[in-house]
Amino acid sequence: MSRITAPFSPEQVDALNQFQLGVSWCSPGHPVLCPHWGGSEDALDDDAPAGARITHGEQGGPLGVLVATASGWQCPHCDHSQNWAYGFMAQLAPQAFADDSTASFAALALRTQGQITDRQALLERIDGAIGAYKELFVSRFVRENQSDQESEPISRATTVVPFMLASLRRRRMELMGVRCAAGQAPVTDESWTRLSDAKPGDSTSVEALYHDENITNPLHDGFGCNAWIEIRRFYLGRILTIGAMPTHWRELVRLVL
Ligand SMILES: [Zn+2]
After folding, report:
1. How would you label 108-138 residue by residue, b for 16+ Cβ within 10 Å and e otherwise?
2. What is the longest distance spanned by two Cα atoms in the chain?
3. What is the DSSP letter of 8?
4. What spacing in Å lies between the alpha carbon of 206 and ligand 1's midpoint?
5. Which of 72, 146, 186, 250 could bridge across to 83 with cysteines, CB 3.0–4.6 Å?
6. Span from the CA of 33 to the centroid of ligand 1 (angstroms)
């Protein structure tokens, strides 16, 4: 099986992290795990940091899920790293597969009515994972600032987790019809209307797309994309909003149960 080695490109980092959480184009597959995650005593080698087993919490997936960064896999809970991955884990897009592959079938299914509940399930899984990794980030950030001495396993998470959060948020936006690449303005698909081109009807609730330059707080909804989506009401010729103005809007997609 072909392998890729670090440094990973930004696209590969995204694909690998999305694969880890079962939300990529080629998911599901078994995620790459940290050998110190605590499955057995034998899994701990001599240089495992003290307390490694108890610090491996369940964040967004099975215990010990590694996070892909530009320099390779890193464990957010200990100092384990790995510099290679199987190539299939980093498939960038459905078109990268042969036509008869599972992935292009999945992509085709995405465009059909029947798949909307699956898309919804995917969004829910992503949201759950984002919540879990935000929690991990906050808990480690607090511990880092309370701790007298710098502890590598603790500070690791605050460096590593933002990679996962950015990858998950970019996948989420992609499913919402907004493609985001690092350092570039978001690109919307045809489901979105530029607010300067047309306005929604009065008293309707819409999905509003916001864009802001250089969001550096990993806890911000726009981190990794510099864009985020909110549900807003359009009233008397304007979107009721506080702060930034949205750039695009689209009708709220209601799920038929
Ligand atoms: Zn670990």
Report:
1. eeeeeeebeeeeeebeebbeebbebbbebbe
2. 67
3. P
4. 43
5. 72
6. 8
Average pLDDT for 133-161: 76
Cα angle: 126, vertex 131, 135; to 5 degrees:
145
- Report how far ligand 1's centroid is from the alpha carbon of 72 (Å): 14
The string of pLDDT tens digits covering residues 83-128 is: 999 988 887 665 444 444 445 445 544 444 344 457 788 888 899 9
Q: Tell me the two tokens of residue 196.
A: 């300067």
Does residue 43 register a pLDDT over 50?
no
Question: Ligand 1 center to residue 87 CA distance, Å?
Answer: 22
**pLDDT tens digits, 59-86:** 656 678 999 999 999 998 888 999 999 9
Ligand 1 centre and the CA of 153: distance in Å?
8
Distance, CA 81 to ligand 1 centroid (Å)? Answer: 8
Tell me which of 25-29, 119-123, 183-187, 229-233 is least confident. Answer: 25-29
Task: Using the mean position of ligand 1's atoms as its centre, give its distance from the Cα of residue 158 in Å.
Answer: 14
CA of residue 219 to ligand 1 center, whole Å: 23
- The whole model's pTM is what? 0.82
Separation of CA 83 and ligand 1 centre (Å): 14
